[in-house]
Specification:
By secondary structure, this protein is mainly alpha-helical. Helix content is 40%, strand content 0%. It has 8 helices and no strands. The N terminus is likely disordered.
Length: 209
């Protein structure tokens, strides 16, 4: 950076600092606090959604650690979430319909302002973070690739249960995971989670081709 640009940058920082000390660019007005700004942005949302602003112990711990907890907090978060109840489908069947699971994985519907159709189920939006079907051209890389998931791991009872439980509450296995706690937070129903297990485990699923 040349001297001219360096002086301009320093001047800009000094100006913003002065504005902040004066209570805003207008001199008399003051900016709202972070909490006030967040609260005001939720003034016209559907009833009950304000609960999303309240963090549980897991979320508070992960936020404070910027998703990189120390060893003690990692163990505490995983132990705490592992002790939380897991709800399974009433049928007792943990491997559902992979075709329904594929639709859930592709769908990003739900949990946004305006997504309030009671006749439409929330999706998992799995492709936003994972590669699953090798023929899929659009997928995220935030999470590990899941192509060949069942083919590589087999379909033992232990693997099936682990897969269901991991989708239900990932924090029980990996503290501060980026993966949503789909079942614990009521994002997906138990039957939907079973259908996602089917997508990952069923030999006929595109994931395992």
């Amino acid at each position: 950076m040349n001297t001219k640009n360096l002086l301009l940058s320093a001047g800009a920082v000094a100006f913003l600092a002065a504005c902040g000390s004066m209570g805003g660019l207008g001199g008399g007005a003051s900016f709202p606090s972070a909490d006030q700004a967040v609260a005001s942005s939720w003034e016209n949302i559907p009833a009950g959604w304000e609960k999303r602003l309240v963090q549980d112990d897991t979320q508070k711990t992960c936020s404070a650690a910027r998703d990189k907890p120390n060893k003690a907090d990692t163990e505490r978060v995983e132990k705490m979430n592992a002790a939380m109840p897991v709800v399974y489908p009433a049928s007792g069947k943990l491997v559902g319909d992979w075709k329904k699971g594929e639709a859930i994985a592709q769908s990003g519907y739900g949990l946004r302002v305006g997504d309030n159709n009671p006749n439409r189920e929330t999706g998992g939006n799995c492709y936003a973070c994972h590669q699953m079907d090798k023929k899929e051209l659009s997928f995220g890389t935030l999470g590990p690739g899941l192509n060949q998931y069942g083919k590589l791991r087999g379909n033992s009872e232990a693997i099936v249960k682990y897969t269901y439980d991991k989708i239900y509450n990932a924090q029980a296995f990996s503290a501060c995971s980026n993966m949503p706690r789909f079942g614990h937070n009521g994002i997906l129903k138990p039957e939907q989670i079973a259908d996602l297990v089917g997508l990952l485990m069923d030999p006929a699923s595109p994931v395992n081709q």
